[in-house]
Amino acid sequence: MTSSPEEILRGLFDETLVGNAPRVLELTEEGLALGMEPQTLLFEALIPSLEEVGARFERGDFFVPEMLIAGRAMAGAMERLRPLLAETGVETVGKFVMGTVKGDVHDIGKNLVNIMLEGAGFEVIDLGVQVAPEKFVSAIEEHHPDIVGFSAFLTTTMPMFKANMNALEKAGLRDSVVVMVGGAPVTQEYADAVGADGYAADASATVKKAKALLHEKRAKVTA
Amino acid sequence: MVARREWPVDIHPLPPLLHNQPQLIAGEVRRLAVELLASYDAVAVGYADCGTYGALDAVCDELGLKRLPGLHCYDLYDGEARLAARLEAEPGTYLLTDFLVRSFERTVVRELGLDRYPELHDDYFRHYTRVVWLAQEPDAELRTLAQQVAERLRLPLTVVPTGTGRLEAAMADLLSSVISG
Lengths: 223, 181
Description:
The complex is a heterodimer. Chain A is α/β, with parallel strands linked by helices. Helix content of chain A is 60%, strand content 11%. Chain A has helices at residues 5-17, 21-33, 38-59, 64-87, 108-119, 133-143, 160-170, 188-194, 203-222; strands spanning 94-100, 122-126, 147-151, 178-182, 198-199. Chain A starts with a helix and ends with a helix. Chain B has 2 domains: 2-67, no CATH class; 74-161, no CATH class. Helices cover 50% and strands 11% of the residues of chain B. Chain B has helices at residues 2-5, 25-37, 55-63, 73-78, 80-89, 98-110, 121-125, 140-153, 165-180; strands spanning 44-45, 66-67, 93-97, 130-135, 157-161. In chain B, strand 1 (44-45), helix 3 and strand 2 form a beta-alpha-beta unit. Chain B is globular, with a radius of gyration of 18 Å. The model of chain B has no long low-confidence stretch (mean pLDDT 95). The A-B interface holds A 19, 63-66, 68-69, 72, 103-108, 111, 129-130, 155-156, 184-185, 187 and B 49, 51, 53, 71, 84, 87-88, 91-92, 112-114, 116-117, 119-120, 123-124, 127-128.
């Protein structure tokens, strides 16, 4: 039986929420076969669902496994939608280079942020974990991102934020890129102390902050 | 330890699973400490920072309490400098204690949802390169269990016998500062 577009959107929302990756992919295919726009599937079902996952996590109704399983379901759909979104000629919101700092192998939060950023229209270049300052520098030189994000999970690796900032300064790149920092131990105060432009406490807030910072940056350029 | 040293101390534990939601630790410590302060001469906190990122210290400052030193319990077994060197040498080190070895199924597998979503294994563990068991009181049973944990994580196991000497010294210092303090 063929589903209606409304049923597909509702199904995508519900199945992403519970992390049913195979069903999310099926519904994505069904929607596309019906002629639904990839943006519609993304912005009217997948992203709202992941935002609901984030809200439930905040309330303590969901825990990390539920976040991850939902993220994986959305990532599967994104694999299918990414080339179609590119084909539509919609410009990306901005380019984001992301990495977990040197000495730190934790990437669960970073990966969730990546999914949300990509879903929101950013092109994300993920450098992975244990990213040394010089690797951030060369990635910025190669990709010319609008924003670079440093992630740290350990209080012992947070000082790498400052090392990264120093490396950007030394390479003459500091003014060309917006710097965001995040991770479980990070606070706004710490972000300010290391001279970052932005900090966000969770994946959803990161997207909002990234968009706001980008808007500010572009406003400055055109002023 | 308390009985052997004949310390005048009662232990009031909080659920160990709080470590999987460290944002709740400070509030739970505060609640219990306030309750105990009504009936004891002194209260000390048997936690390190334990992922509260300073929130526990804020509670200690507010209530005039002292806590064990260090960022995590691992510091109390291995020593802060030794552990830092271990992690710097190999950042992909997954740490175990005797407690975690014994309770791995409950405190790690179930809590991470791996019983329900085994496909998440790589999301959690793909960047780890070894398991280090900080062995306080190793015996044949724990050795077997630790090996099983390492096999489950598909990582090599390193056993570091730490004993409980550093924890005991830290406890003695804490009690001495509380009693004299």
